[in-house]
Amino acid sequence: MAAAEFVLLVTAATFTFLLVTTRAQAQSVGASCQQRDMDALLAFKQGINSDPNGILASWRSDGHGHEEDCCRWRGVRCSNRTGHVVELRLGNTDLYDGYALVGEISDSLLSLEHLEYLDLSMNSLEGSSGRIPDLVPPHLGNLSKLQYLDISGTQRLFERLPRCSPCKLQELHLQLNNLTGVLPNSMGHLSSLVILDLSGNNITGHLPESIGNFTSLMSLDLSNNNFTGDVPYEIGVLTDLSSLNLGYNSFDGVITEKHFGFLSNLQSLYLSDTSLKIEISSEWQPPFRLQYADFGNSKLGPSFPVWLRWMVGVYYLDISGTGINDRIPHWFSSTFSNCSFLDLGRNQIFGDLPRDMEMMSVERLYLNSNNLTGRVPPLPQNLTLLDISVNSLSGPLPLNLGSSKLIELTLFSNRISGHIPRYICKCNELAILDLANNLFEGKFPSCNEMTMLTTLELSNNSLSGEIPTFLQHSTNLQFLDLAWNKLSGGLPTWVGNLVGLQFLRLRHNMFTGNIPLSITNLGCLQYLDIAENGMSGSLPSHMVNFTTMTGKSSTTGYHIPPLFCGDYSVPGSYQSVSLSTFMKGQELNYRSSSDILYIKMMSMDLSLNNLSGEIPEEIVTLDALLNLNLSGNRLRGNIPYQIGAMESLESLDLSRNELSGEIPASLSNLASLSALDLSYNNLTGRIPSGSQLVSLYSLNPYIYTGNFGLCGPPLVHNCTNNETSMQSNYLRRSDEGVEFFYLGLGCGFIMGIWLVFCTLLFTKQWRILINFILQYL
Fold it and tell me: What is its main location (predicted)?
């Protein structure tokens, strides 16, 4: 190569390098922001009254260098070429009102004519007018380059979408506002939209036919509104649509294959909680392959929808509560083999479960509340949740359930028999096990570790043996129900180690022995039922340690549970067997396990045992209790004098014991009491007065039956002069006791002095003392 050519080549390379470097530096630095745009942003800031996160702290113009360049302000991005503001990202990502911008939007934003992206979501920018300025029509033309607009979650009225001229807007997010009225046909002019989200508003009326103009639309979300009428067929021409959500509306028309004829790109379809009737021919082959499909609580039945057979790639499918009255088809396991979430619950599906379910990859499977029969087959190996409750399944469970990954296993209200398989012990992650209302028998298998359990529901079976000892290590346990079985033995002292326990029901078993004192360690306990057993001994002392039941603050009067107890942590989908409590003289049923958390289930029932001794006075500290039932025991002594302090009581049953003395006058202070039973005791004296007790007697005239020593209204037997009220008797006994004490003390003092005096009188020293005194008189 010649020297001249070499020099030329080096010079060219150097020039090229300098040119690229200069351009890179220019792009990295970027052009300074335009004064007009800066003024518009500062005017916007003037309308902000509160900025907890300091988002606008950098928005300053104080003559100090780069701080005047609005392109460097937080949330602002400018064009590197022109310096015009093209993006404004001020959305509240914390999704919490305490961090939101508060104030009002200045019309100055309309001066940002080059703005392409505007996000003001999850803030409170309505100002005193209670509305956002008309950034979207009729002034949208001022922001003709806008492609993305998100003002969702402002919680206020964003008025109308009419008179909109064509523009470049591609994304419009107006969800979680308080939009009202109907959608006008003119909104079809927004034909460049790719994403339209109007969910979570109060929009009414029909969906306009101009929806078909959104030919570029890929995502349409109209859920959680009040749309009515038919879904227009024009929605079927949106060939680019991949996600369609019409759920939680009042649509009441018919959906046919014509609505989906050209939606070849559709991947997500949500029609849940509408009144839409889905009528699609069994011969139709859809042009799409759904990944997410939610038809829950729509009208899909009565036949099992055959067109779903083509959804071989579906990942999430909900067809619960859709009126299907049919068998599970033979292609079920193969078609949905890769489905992760599958819900067929609350239908009228009958027949057997598929025998080839083991091949499926499903993780969460709901088949509850149907008419399924036959035996439970081996389960899919990836199952973490199975709910086949409220069916007619029978026979024993398979020895190998198939999945050791189970977190929730809910089989209640079937006719499943035999022993609980030992394989259950391998489910180390199991948190919820509900086998109630079945025909299980024998002992619960001896498991080494089930430490993750929060809920164990085994009631209404024929289980025998003692309380499973492995439970002493289940320190996460919050809900334990072993009622209506054949369990025996004593209550173990380690029950007091389950300090998070909130619900304990051992009713109708064969437990014996004393109630262990350690039970009062359960400060989170809200519901205690050990009724209908053979428990003996006295009531546990230190009841004040039931801190959740002792939940009244003396200063505020509000229920204050212990901070460490928290809420009963069950998944929102979990629906337990119907629970019951004996209260107000009848059995009250509660449908969901979560209902027991309400204070209305704050209950203690120790009835129908062999408990003896007195009712401890400290029981009156349990002032959050709504139900106290100690009936059918051998309790003696007086009713606690301060029972009126249990001001939350709605039901009190102390009947069929050996209680004596008078009815405390404070009982009439229980304003919430609506059921009372003191019958068949040895109570005496005048019945306390009070309108509350009169009302209770009128509802149940047997509340005092079997107490032959009671007198006074409302009973026919009048009190004699020797029969006085409890208050006067109590005060008289108290006064007499005090007077007798001081009288005895005084008499004893005087008698002591005379005794000393007489003793000295007959001693030699006393005679010498008298002679000495007489010599000097």
Answer: membrane
Q: What is the distance between the alpha carbons of residues 694 and 141, in angstroms, rounded to a whole number? A: 75
Could you tell me the end-to-end alpha-carbon distance of the chain, in angstroms, rounded to an integer? 158
Whether a cis peptide bond, with omega within 30° of 0, leads into 138 is yes
Q: What is the CATH number of the domain that holds 84?
A: 3.80.10.10
- Under the banding of pLDDT at 50, 70 and 90, the label for residue 577 is low
Model confidence pLDDT, tens digit, residues 366-383: 999 999 999 999 999 999
- Are residues 712 and 634 part of one domain? yes
Give tens-digit pLDDT for 241-272. 999 999 999 999 999 999 998 999 999 999 99
Please give the structure tokens belonging to residue 340: 């992760």
Give residue 496's Cα distance to chain centre: 26
The pTM of the full predicted model, rounded to 2 decimals, is 0.80
Confirm if 217 and 241 have CB atoms less than 8 A apart.
yes
Please answer whether residues 492 and 467 qualify as being in contact, where contact means their C-beta atoms are separated by less than 8 angstroms. Answer: yes
Cα–Cα distance for residue pair 231/257, rounded to 1 Å: 12
Cα–Cα distance for residue pair 74/103, rounded to 1 Å: 18
Judged by average pLDDT, the poorest of 16-20, 175-179, 246-250, 547-551 is: 16-20
Q: Tokens for 140? A: 């949208």
Contact 694, 715 (CB under 8 A): no
CA distance linking residue 602 with residue 613, whole number of Å = 24
190 shares a domain with 165: no
Non-local CB neighbours of 529 within 8 Å, separated by 6+ positions: 483, 504, 505, 506, 507, 581, 603, 604, 605
Q: How far is CA 489 from CA 86, 406, 468, 469, 510, in A?
A: 76, 31, 11, 12, 7
Amino acid at 458: L
Residue 442 located in a structural domain: no
Nearest to 605 by CA among 507, 492, 695: 507
* CA pair distance 288, 311, nearest whole angstrom: 8
